[in-house]
Every structure is written in structure tokens, then in C-alpha cells.
């Protein structure tokens, strides 16, 4: 049997969800709402009465549906201890493991704002958790971003979201030279040690992968827009990259005990995994950054 607290929490969550739903979908009937939330129509009528008492501006249309008047804003969010811990752990990741100072600064400010609105009991829980939580003590500390790199992630992420092309000077490590590129940014990917931009490269006329820490200069072309390929899917592209010519076939061998630790740290999709005659584990995968694999080992 659920406790009174659990019943209250479930109803509170449902009321919140009903507001969000009615803000995004108009003219939903009581039957529609009941089916959506898997409750009775009587329960929905009680919920609608409670929302009205909470001064949520509900209206009922002639077509038989409910909606919320445009312009209504929800009151400030209330976070549970678990939700607050999740958000603050995310800000800790950014503050400690990201090279760009502006990202760390914003994460610190977000964490401060979250803490300021938390009830004292939840804040004490978070403090106790932080004292007993460490993010990878063996992490190879990220390099400090240079003045030229500062703010680059934000500029690129905005170009991705608003579909603005980027002009940049990019260092090609394999040829030890800087090339001038114009690209259409399609997505950002964070690998274990660095950010990458996935973009259509006008020079190569193909989708390419660019490390942000190898961009020497860049400019977002704010007065131009591009159309992303309709059939492009970022996750599918990443899954297919294992067939890329730039990838190296890597084979590693671990003792069975070592592999229990190493399995979760392998930075790519495993191609083959087999047990040797003497009980070791041999694993094969494709990855382009041999320096990173060497550091990880």
C-alpha cells in the first residue's frame, strides 16, 4: 500500500504534468486526460478543480476540451533531494573536468543558484554527499583553455542550434599544417578527454570530425544559414565511424581480473571479445586517437 506521502507525491507530479501537457496541447477532454494519465475521469475532474484553486488559468472550449491561457508561467520548480543531487553532480562534472573556464564559471553559478533555493534539509543531504563523492581521482587533468579558445564551445553550440556556418583555421596534426575551412556545424560530441565538432566540410565536401582544441581561429557567420541534411542522424553517424579510414584497429589483452576494470573504460564499440586458452581476455576495437589509448593504459 502506498503511504500518504507517496500518494501526495504522485498526485503532485501528475498535476505538474497536466499543466505541461495542457500548455502544449490544447482542447484535451477529460477523457483524453484520463487515458493519458491512466486514471479515472473523476480523478481528472478533481485535478482540474485543484488547478483552478491554485489559480492556473484553465478554459473550456466549445469543442469540449481544456486548455491553459497563453502567457501562464509555472511557479519556480521545487526539487527533491534526488533531483538536486543529479543536477549538482552534473555541475561538478563540468567544473572539475572541463578545460574551458567559461563553462566552469557558468556551472559554478548554476550550482550556487540551485543551492540557494533548496530547503535546508536537502542542502544538508547534498553537502554530505559531496563530502563523500570524488570524480575520477586518476583523471589526467584537462589543460586550461587558452584565451583564444575561451568561449569557443558556446559560440559553436549556438552555431549548431541556429544553423550558422563557421569559418575557421584548423590544425591538421597528421600533416602538421593549418588549413582554412568553412563548415556547416551539425553536432557536438564529448569524448573522454576532449570536445569534437561534427560538421559538413565545404573543402572536402563531406562530413568531418574536428577537435575543438585544434581550432586556432574561428568566426560564426551569423548572417548566413544552412540546411542540415534531412537524413543526417548524429548517433547513426557516430556508430558508423568505426568503419572510417582514420580509425586504427586496436587489439588489447588483459587478465580476466584486469578486464573487469578495463571493460568500462574502452573508448569505442567493441568489435571482438574472446577468452584465450590461458584465461586472459583479448579485445579488438577501432579508435583514431592512439595517444589517448596509450595514456589510458
Nearest-angstrom radius of gyration? 25 Å
The major β-sheet equals: 5 strands, antiparallel
Q: What would you say the CATH architecture of the largest domain is?
A: Roll
Termini, distance in Å? 51 Å
Per DSSP E runs of 2 or more residues, the count of β-strands stands at 10
Secondary-structure content class: alpha+beta
Helix content: 40-55%
Task: Tell me the count of domains.
Answer: 4
The overall pLDDT average reads 80
| Top CATH class of the largest domain | Mainly Beta
**CATH overall fold name of the largest domain:** SH3 type barrels
Q: Main sheet: which strands, in order across?
A: 6-5-4-3-7
How large a portion of the residues is in β-strands, by DSSP E? 15-25%
Low-confidence stretches: 1-9
Series of secondary-structure elements, N-terminal to C-terminal: HHHEEHHHHEEEEEHEHEEH
Global geometry: extended
Number of helices, where a helix is a run of at least 4 consecutive DSSP H or I residues: 10
Summarize the structure.
Helix content is 40%, strand content 22%. It is α+β, with helices and mostly antiparallel strands and 297 residues long. It has four domains: 4-68, Arc Repressor Mutant, subunit A; 81-131; 152-232, SH3 type barrels; 248-296, no CATH class.
Amino acid at each position: 500500500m502506498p503511504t500518504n506521502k507517496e500518494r501526495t507525491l504522485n498526485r503532485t507530479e501528475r498535476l505538474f504534468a497536466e499543466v505541461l501537457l495542457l500548455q502544449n496541447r490544447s482542447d484535451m477532454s477529460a477523457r483524453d486526460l484520463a487515458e493519458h494519465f491512466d486514471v479515472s475521469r473523476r480523478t481528472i475532474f478533481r485535478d482540474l478543480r485543484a488547478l483552478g484553486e491554485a489559480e492556473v488559468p484553465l478554459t473550456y472550449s466549445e469543442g469540449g476540451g481544456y486548455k491553459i491561457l497563453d502567457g501562464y508561467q509555472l511557479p519556480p520548480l521545487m526539487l527533491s533531494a534526488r533531483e538536486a543531487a543529479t543536477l549538482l553532480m552534473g555541475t561538478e562534472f563540468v567544473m572539475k573536468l572541463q578545460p574551458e573556464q567559461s563553462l566552469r564559471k557558468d556551472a559554478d553559478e548554476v550550482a550556487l543558484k540551485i543551492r540557494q533555493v533548496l530547503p535546508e534539509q536537502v542542502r544538508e543531504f547534498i553537502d554530505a554527499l559531496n563530502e563523500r563523492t570524488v570524480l575520477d581521482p586518476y583523471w589526467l587533468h584537462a589543460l586550461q583553455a587558452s584565451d583564444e579558445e575561451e568561449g569557443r564551445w558556446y559560440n559553436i553550440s549556438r552555431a549548431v542550434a541556429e544553423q550558422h556556418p563557421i569559418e575557421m583555421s584548423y590544425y591538421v596534426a597528421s600533416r602538421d599544417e593549418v588549413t582554412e575551412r568553412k563548415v556547416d556545424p551539425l553536432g557536438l560530441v564529448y569524448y573522454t578527454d576532449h570536445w569534437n565538432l561534427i560538421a559538413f566540410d565545404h573543402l572536402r565536401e563531406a562530413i568531418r570530425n574536428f577537435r575543438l582544441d585544434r581550432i586556432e581561429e574561428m568566426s560564426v557567420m551569423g548572417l548566413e544559414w544552412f540546411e542540415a541534411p534531412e537524413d543526417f542522424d548524429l548517433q547513426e553517424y557516430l556508430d558508423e565511424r568505426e568503419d572510417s579510414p582514420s580509425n586504427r584497429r586496436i587489439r588489447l589483452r588483459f587478465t580476466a581480473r584486469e578486464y573487469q576494470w578495463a571493460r568500462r573504460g574502452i573508448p569505442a564499440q567493441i568489435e571482438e571479445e574472446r577468452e584465450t586458452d590461458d584465461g586472459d581476455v583479448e579485445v579488438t576495437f577501432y579508435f583514431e586517437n592512439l595517444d589517448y589509448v596509450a595514456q589510458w593504459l
